[in-house]
Amino acid sequence: MEPAKGKMRRTSSSLLLRITDICKVRSVAVAENVGEKPNAGSTGGSSEDGAHLKIYPHQVSDHESCSGTSTARYEDAVVEKLLDAVSSLKLAYLKVQQAHVPYDPEKVAAAGEHFVSELEETAGLKDLYFGVSKWSNPMYQSHVSSRIHEHQKLALELQADICKKDSELVLLRAEFEELERRNMELKEEVDRRALLMHREISFDIGKGGSIDMFMELFENSSKCIHDFTKLVISSMKVSGWDLNYSKFPVDKSVVFEKRTDKKYCVEAYFARAMLMVTKEDYFSMDSFYHVMSFKDPFDALVESPNSNFGKFCREKYLVAVPSNMEDSFFGNLDHRAFVKMGGHPRTQFYQTFARMARYVWALLTVARFLKPMAEMFFVKSGVQFQKKHMESVPAKLTTEEAKISVGFTVMPGFKIGCTVIRCRVYLSMLNTRDS
């Protein structure tokens, strides 16, 4: 019996060493190649060690029941199977993790099914083990049972971790959908406010040709010119239009405080193009009251495309919007061709222009019929800033006004007798060049 006991001890020791070796190699195999099913070759042992030995419960002879060699063979085979199953379980869980990053519902479901399958296969080893009637060593049974229980507990923990992550993903998805819904609501609110901002405010035409009416028209004209300029600048950015184009002339000595301040050059260009001298027969107080009675100026153009206002709108469009700018924005000159034929295109761009044109046309109409007549004035580049006649755009506060000069006029001012509506200017340190 002594040689048999010695052989059994050697078998147990070698088995523990083999388990340690297999676990190490399995860990490396998982890192190197996730997609491969573990096999006996990757463990460093041969198939003769029992890695692929199929075990079936069966009746054995009395001689086998007394043979330590037979028991050791069953032990090796079951442990090999157990180690393979644990390695497969690790690989299945790793695939579950990979399916979550990035999150792919189909891959997660497939990986979960594969993991459950591996888990059931691992659990089946327990039944196989206890089905082998000749594995009667209580200590060995306790050892294997504790290992199986340990790995089953680990598998349950991993499965609980998967369920937890699934729950977190469900919550995150619900939060994401809620954010999407709120974003849509905010977008609708922004669009609604933008529509209200552009919607024409009913103009009070019961004041007559008064200074108060003129000042209100001046503010509305300035705002509409500013809004149309924003639309043009947005189109310029999209189409790659050069902001330094010669149509926006500015004294080269002007020093811009910010690069974005060049937008005031574009606004100054449109203000000058819209307000400069035009045909006197375009202006009539009778036409004024009729055109201003419409909530949307485009309705006035549709009703009377060749009215005084309609002619003014067409003339100013052809002057203010260069053909190469239009071609750059739209890829064609359809707007221009339609306007030249006497029409008014029903597009967002032209409708925004029409809103601006109506207030400018109304401003110039009332200016001619005021008593005394309103006189428009611009401020030349380099003139010293004076608060009485000028307003800084953007607003600037300085204690050294003597050193500040006008770069260019953004919006001209008006004089009505002794009343002055200040012009809006962009300030620059121009006078430093003469010192």
Automatic annotation (TrEMBL):
<dbReference type="InterPro" id="IPR006943">
    <property type="entry name" value="DUF641_pln"/>
</dbReference>
<dbReference type="GO" id="GO:0009639">
    <property type="term" value="P:response to red or far red light"/>
</dbReference>
<feature type="domain" description="GIL1/IRKI C-terminal">
    <location>
        <begin position="376"/>
        <end position="426"/>
    </location>
</feature>
<dbReference type="Pfam" id="PF24994">
    <property type="entry name" value="GIL1_IRKI_C"/>
</dbReference>
<feature type="domain" description="DUF641">
    <location>
        <begin position="72"/>
        <end position="188"/>
    </location>
</feature>
<dbReference type="InterPro" id="IPR056813">
    <property type="entry name" value="GIL1_IRKI_C"/>
</dbReference>
<dbReference type="InterPro" id="IPR040225">
    <property type="entry name" value="GIL1-like"/>
</dbReference>
<dbReference type="Pfam" id="PF04859">
    <property type="entry name" value="DUF641"/>
</dbReference>
<dbReference type="GO" id="GO:0009959">
    <property type="term" value="P:negative gravitropism"/>
</dbReference>
<keyword id="KW-0175">Coiled coil</keyword>
<feature type="coiled-coil region">
    <location>
        <begin position="169"/>
        <end position="196"/>
    </location>
</feature>
<protein>
    <recommendedName>
        <fullName>DUF641 domain-containing protein</fullName>
    </recommendedName>
</protein>
